[in-house]
Specification:
Number of helices: 11
CATH class: Alpha Beta
Low-confidence stretches: none
Number of strands: 8
CATH topology: TIM Barrel
Distance between the termini: 14 Å
Number of domains: 1
Order of helices and strands: EHHEHEHEHEHEHHEHEHH
Mean pLDDT: 95
CATH architecture: Alpha-Beta Barrel
Strand content: 15-25%
Bound molecules: pyridoxine-5'-phosphate
């Protein structure tokens, strides 16, 4: 399992004073040097953390894989085609939310989605859909022509009891197997941290996790290099058991 690092909250801290530091592009470089397999940023409609210029600079400097999280809007489609990240991840976006709250409702937007992703893929960009880990969502993602799905681990991250945790892991694993059988690559993310990653990383069908808040919170105390390396150590250790 590989680790993509979401650097949005480096920008959140920078924007708190509207100055230049800390710089999300520098953070991305250090994360890559520490072993991250990709850099994720979410360009929100309100630009509350990552801004357009950050995305341009990230495109110039990221050498692993740049994943642009975005809402399904015309503006974002144009930005993606112009900037050419390796990957876009479509997420539902509500203005008032603190973070992405649920998976993308493919059934609701199906026809528009099919048309929306075509020019993006023609520009050489892969398309991932952030979805709930259930068969219906996976089936629709495959039919709509997505390249990957990112399974929503938010509900998993909130479970406290062992039985509930195992049930959620099984639900995610079942969805991951089904997605692969349907020709989709599978990643996962949301709410993963240094504790819940340990059981989670045993799900072999998931090729990469996308982690932001917990990792940047740790990095604010011990540095990004240590924060990334420690997360990779946990992922690799629990996998080898
Ligand atoms: N994946 C998606 C689709 C997200 O929207 C987010 C939050 O930006 C993440 C992963 C990372 O979540 P967290 O910050 O809780 O690690």
């Amino acid at each position: 399992m590989q680790l993509a690092v979401n650097i949005d909250h480096i920008a959140t801290l920078r924007n708190a004073r509207n100055e230049q530091q800390p710089d999300p592009v520098t953070a991305a470089m250090i994360a890559e040097l520490a072993g991250a397999s990709g850099i994720v940023c979410h360009l929100r409609e309100d630009r509350r953390h990552i801004r357009d210029r950050d995305l341009e600079r990230l495109r110039e400097t990221v050498t692993t894989k740049l994943d642009l999280e975005m809402a399904m809007t015309e503006e974002m489609q144009q930005i993606a085609i112009r900037t050419k990240p390796e990957l876009i991840t479509l997420v539902p976006e509500k203005r008032q939310e603190l973070t992405t709250e649920g998976g993308f409702n493919i059934a609701l937007h199906y026809d528009r989605l099919v048309e929306y992703i075509k020019p993006v893929q023609e520009a050489g960009i892969e398309v991932s859909l952030f979805i709930e880990p259930d068969k219906q969502a996976v089936t629709l993602a495959a039919e709509a022509g997505a390249d990957l799905v990112e399974l929503h681990t938010g509900p998993y991250s909130l479970k406290k009891k062992a039985g509930d945790i195992n049930a959620e892991i099984n639900r995610i694993r079942t969805a991951a197997i089904f997605a692969r059988e349907n020709g989709l690559r599978v990643v996962a993310g949301h709410g993963l941290n240094y504790y819940n990653i340990i059981p989670f990383s045993r799900i072999e069908e998931i090729e990469e996790v996308s982690i932001g808040h917990a990792l940047i919170a740790r990095a604010s105390l011990v540095g990004i290099e240590s924060a990334v390396k420690e997360m990779l150590r946990l992922i690799n250790n629990s996998r080898s058991k």
